[in-house]
Specification:
Blueprint lengths: L14 E7 L27 E4 L4 E2 L5 H17 L3 E3 L18 H6 L4 E9 L5 E9 L4 E2 L4 E5 L4 H17 L8 E8 L6 E8 L6 E2 L7 E6 L5 E6 L6 E6 L5 E3 L7 E7 L5 E8 L2 E8 L6 E2 L7 E6 L5 E6 L6 E6 L6 E2 L6 E7 L5 E8 L2 E8 L6 E2 L6 E6 L5 E7 L7 E7 L6 E3 L4 E7 L5
Parallel strand pairs: 2-4, 2-5, 3-5
Antiparallel strand pairs: 1-8, 5-6, 6-7, 6-8, 9-10, 9-32, 10-11, 12-13, 13-14, 14-15, 16-17, 17-18, 18-19, 20-21, 21-22, 22-23, 24-25, 25-26, 26-27, 28-29, 29-30, 30-31
Helix pairs in contact: 1-3
Length: about 450
């Protein structure tokens, strides 16, 4: 396929994670992570935790630049959450030039560092990168968890850095990390009334953008598989919407379902990775169907004269949330995964759409349109505790980070020159920020944590 790159997954398979507990002198009891250094993530205002990360030590002569780059990515990941504040190196009293040296805790306390991250990087003759790191609770004067060692090829150094940051984040917050993940999205260019669109994939922070399709036809709504190796999307290359399944590594793809006289769109994987749920339009009616990706007959899950679309499975695969206008306006409903009676869960003012079940299972994210404004919001699975996180001319299409704490979505500016961009926000409504993509972008879908 013109414009596609078969190297979309290059560097992923090359990374081998040793993640071995290192013998670093002091041993840490299992209760160490329950100590005083902990961020409790709540809906209130959080004072970012100050941390220090001296540039990682270069343990081989060719590792200096790489050590600095890895240190910076770790720091950027943590600061980007809004939960951490990096203390500048100009404030340091101590310097860490030896990974195995004792920590001078009074020097770090004096600059109010609550967490200290130290590390070392080496590159062997074959280009293999090895990174080891330690995390310290400065005020308790103790390591927070064991040191870890990670290894991979030289082109996987960013993944190694993200894995280090995931470990730090998890140990301090008690939550799962999300930095070592990718996002598939629609890259756009051209005027608003004639945009060219192609599928692209990037690291969660906008780095390493790679294109999966060319811009010869409109593509929409890409969705990762639970293992992150495949993508579902909708293409208009035949003139009508049709669902395709693509292998991200090889960019080989095939049409998923092809019934003459029908249009298929809004696909999403079930948690088992084998079942796909989607919308099928035929004869002026749109209903939700499911299909095994390995073949077989589609199963119809809804049967109503209304428009039923945007289905999303619960994490245990037992239920599906979807949008429907069966009540006269666009609202959210939940039904058993096998179909059957649905119950409405949205009852606020306005219209609701694009529901997505949290990977934690506790919340459903959605797009809401009310009084001329669009919002990204979350609610409990019974429809209670609705909370709007954003408001703008056009916000739509949320997707969950692997840990269920952050959402990414499309925001489009107003006017004839308005362009779509990607934004993220945490589930308390804090830390709203633009995601760098190098150009216009829409329809993000977050992968699970990479393996």
């Amino acid at each position: 396929m013109a414009g596609a790159r078969s190297s979309a997954a290059s560097g992923l398979a090359a990374l081998t994670l040793a993640a071995m507990a290192m013998t670093l002198g002091a041993t840490v009891p299992a209760t160490a992570q329950n100590g005083p250094l902990r961020i409790e993530i709540t809906e209130g205002v959080i004072e970012p935790l100050p941390f220090a990360i001296p540039t990682f030590e270069a343990e081989s002569g060719n590792a200096g630049e790489l050590a600095a780059q890895i240190s910076q990515v770790v720091a950027d990941d943590l600061v980007g959450t809004g939960l951490f504040r990096q203390i500048p190196s100009s404030a340091f009293i101590s310097q860490v030039s030896d990974f195995d040296a004792n920590v001078q805790y009074p020097d770090w306390k004096a600059i109010n560092a609550q967490a200290l991250i130290t590390g070392a990087v080496s590159v062997d003759g074959s280009g293999q990168v090895n990174v080891k790191f330690r995390l310290f609770d400065v005020f308790s004067e103790a390591p927070l968890g064991d040191g870890l060692q990670l290894g991979g090829s030289s082109d996987s150094w960013r993944r190694i850095a993200h894995k280090v940051a995931d470990q730090v984040y998890s140990r301090i917050t008690g939550e799962g990390g999300y930095f070592d993940s990718r996002v598939v999205f629609v890259a756009e260019d051209g005027p608003k009334d004639a945009r060219r669109k192609r599928l692209a994939v990037m690291d969660y922070d906008g780095a390493n953008v790679q294109y999966l399709t060319d811009s010869s036809s409109i593509v929409l709504a890409p969705r990762f598989s639970p293992t992150g190796d495949r993508v579902l999307y909708t293409s208009y290359e035949t003139g009508f919407p049709k669902i395709y399944l693509m292998n991200v590594g090889t960019v080989q793809r095939r049409a998923l379902e092809d019934q003459p006289g029908t249009m298929t769109f809004a696909p999403r994987f079930a948690p088992d990775g084998q079942t796909v749920v989607y919308s099928l339009a035929q004869g002026g009616n749109t209903d939700i169907y499911s299909l095994n990706v390995n073949g077989g007959a589609p199963q119809r899950l809804t049967s109503a004269p209304s428009i039923e679309t945007a289905p999303s499975f619960s994490p245990d695969g037992s239920q599906i949330v979807f949008e429907s206008d069966r009540s006269g306006t666009q609202q959210l409903y939940i039904m058993p995964a096998s179909g059957g009676e649905a119950r409405r869960i949205s009852f606020g003012e306005g219209r609701y759409g694009t529901p997505v079940w949290s990977p934690r299972g506790d919340l459903i994210a959605f797009t809401k349109q009310n009084a001329g404004r669009f919002h990204i919001g979350v609610m409990r699975t019974d429809g209670s505790e609705e909370r709007l996180l954003t408001a703008s001319f056009l916000d739509e299409g949320p997707t969950w980070a692997p840990n269920g704490r952050v959402l990414m979505f499309t925001r489009e500016s107003a006017g004839a020159g308005g362009q779509p961009t990607l934004y993220s926000v945490d589930i308390s409504g804090r830390n709203l920020k633009r995601v760098p993509t190098g150009g216009s972008a829409s329809d993000p879908a977050w992968s699970p944590l990479l393996q």
